[in-house]
Amino acid sequence: MRHTVDLYNNSRQTANVTVRVQGMARSRTFRVSLSERACDCGQWKLSSVPCSHALAVCRQYVLDNTEFVPECYSTTEYALTYTSGFFAPLADVEDWGEPNFKLRHNPDRRIR
User: Fold this and answer.
1) Which end of the chain, N or C, is more open, meaning fewer C-beta atoms within 10 Å of its C-beta?
2) Judging by beta carbons within 10 Å of its beta carbon (0-12, 13-18, 19+), is residue 44 exposed, middle or buried?
3) What's the predicted TM-score (pTM) here?
């Protein structure tokens, strides 16, 4: 898959990204808006993480793509998850307590 960035508008921070799949005659064009953190593909709005089209714009114009990723995905925030005391991971299986329930087999559920 090849991403080609066309028509970058610096004042609006928008670009058109054309995606061509090798061996296919057709291509598809997506409008990317860095200022709105949006792309026509919808992935960026859905996941809040830049899609491949937005990353292609960043690569083409040497922009720091980490500026477009929410702070909650940073390594600093990740580390804070474990140092805040709110979440304490268990070191080993031996630290797990005995469950206060029993698992039962459901014969109506098919195994795939």
Assistant:
1) C
2) buried
3) 0.68
> Residue with structure tokens 């797990």?
96
* Residue whose entry in the numeric block shows the structure tokens 């061509």: 20
Dmax over CA atoms of the chain, in Å, equals 62
pLDDT tens per residue, range 11-58:
889 999 999 887 777 889 999 999 999 999 999 999 999 999 999 999
Please answer whether residues 96 and 90 qualify as being in contact, where contact means their C-beta atoms are separated by less than 8 angstroms.
yes
Token pair of 53, please?
Answer: 């089209």
Q: Please, which residues have CB within 8 angstroms of residue 104's CB and are 6 or more apart in sequence?
A: none
Dihedral over alpha carbons 76, 77, 81, 83 (to 10 degrees):
40
